[in-house]
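Thread: "does anyone have the structure for this chain?"

Original post by V.I.:
We have the sequence but no experimental structure in hand. Need at least a predicted one for the grant figures.
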Amino acid sequence: MRNYQEEARLTALRQLKLLDTPASESFDRITRMASQIFGLPVAAVSLTDRDRQWFKSRVGIDHCSIPRDKAPCAQVAETTETLVIEDFATSPCYADSVLARAGTRFYAGAPLVTSDGYGLGALCVLGTEPRRVTRSEITALTDLAAMVMAQIELQHAFGRIDPVSGLATQTQFRDDLLDLARDHPGEQRLAVVVDLARDDELSRFRQVMGGARVDDMIREASLALQTALQPARAAYQVGAAQFAFLSPPNVEQDAYLTMVRSTFGTIRAASSVRFVTSVAIGVRPFALGDVSADDVLRGACSAAQDARREDGAIAIFSVANDTAHRRRYRLLQDFGAALEAEDQLRLVYQPRLDLATGRCTSVEALLRWRHPTLGDISPGEFIPIVERTSLARATTQWVLDAALDELAGWQRSGSPLNLSINISASNFGEADLVDRIRQGLLRRKLPPKRLEVELTESAIMDQPDRAMVMLRQLAEAGVCLAIDDFGTGQSSLAYLQRLPAHVIKIDQAFVRGLLSGESSDVMLVETMVDLAHKLNFRVVAEGIETNEAATLLAQIGCEEGQGFLFSRPLEAEELITWLAERATDRPDRTMAA
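Reply from O.Q.:
Generated one for you, tokens below.
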């Protein structure tokens, strides 16, 4: 029975994840109070392990533990009763103990007891002279021991231990790092974050296998990690499928990373989910006290995302990459405010010309953002960020409203210009997009044929079924459809034949190659134009910068062109001026900039 109770006590102790963790100010504060109340130089929060007394907190003690044999705190843990030894020299049990041989003559310890009645150890005070204790001193020691237990239970209950993995959480990681920085300032460490799976992998895994199987995966990974680290090292769960740990102090970085790669390769090979998840590992070198705990963890997580190039890869924290990540996050946060502001977003318009006549037939609306402090932000930077978030819908609506308002103004002034806008793959999930476009046209009394909607070939092929449904609905509504960046996607001829589009825009990468002198480049564009015509598409060439390219494209049979040869994207007022200037030119001028 005694052995069973002892094993249960040890299990309770280990579940609290206290052993071999860094010193903590929340415990040290109580230990100092005990020392001051008794006026003694030595005090400790002593936890009774299987064969040792380990000190979670200590005052006046240089070492971290002593043997459990003949340690008074072990008796306190076993009996859960307060123990006072007024003079070790006269104690038959402790006169020849390790403490007595070290010069200890007095001991008082109050038990640390869990709500289930298990004794974890003692809050104790020690002196080098025999002495008696008063009732008030014992009461104070007992109260302080209760405060220690309250702190232990608080840490365990409120966000300190993950209920699935049993590992300490991000909150505990932060506190432990603060404590380490206080005790070992300047010590060099590596923070390692192991990301078990991408968000989409985790979502699919949960969808197919269920939440319980995901929990099994987390438990399996946490057990493997704890086994690899050994009991003396702490592991933390810092995300849904992210674990963190610290290297030993002052390790040689390359050798340590080689060991980490080998260790996780072995863990990965034995994993039950190795074929449905991909592991990435990020490493953040730092010196204790020089970097905040939050920044250490954020940097390691950032490096883990950099490592996502290939399964099992390890990446070292990069200041340049981290700066880029932080800028992207800032832009994403600020773009939401830009949508609501009146002076940050605007549309510019790039003309599209008939190559045979030089007449401007339509313009493409392009979104621009002038950040209040960062200045002009390239659309190539902010649009890919926005497209992957819930802001994509609001952005498309902003562009649609602004473009249709402009088009309605042109119609009232008698301008025959048509207008094209761009939508992305993320918009395919908006079931009401076509209705919103229809309603926008109706409210402004605009004929649908005046509007052209552009989608890139790659966006269409990302979600071909959804794209086909939306394109058919738009075509039925009378809206013109264009496939942008043609030639860069993976569409098949069979799929192209089914698309209810009207225009194909040849990507500028092919147009630039026309003047390289390679006959194969010209032949490629000729083939693309011929194919488009056979599929009943009108062809627009993008990125035209020279008269020679425009002339060659017209000879090949390309109907329209767009590029800096004709005009850069123009503000609305500049476009009106540009159109007026072209109207006064000779009617045979077709290639003038």
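V.I.: this helps a lot. The longest helix spans residues 135-157.
O.Q.: and Confidence is low (pLDDT under 50) at residues 586-593.
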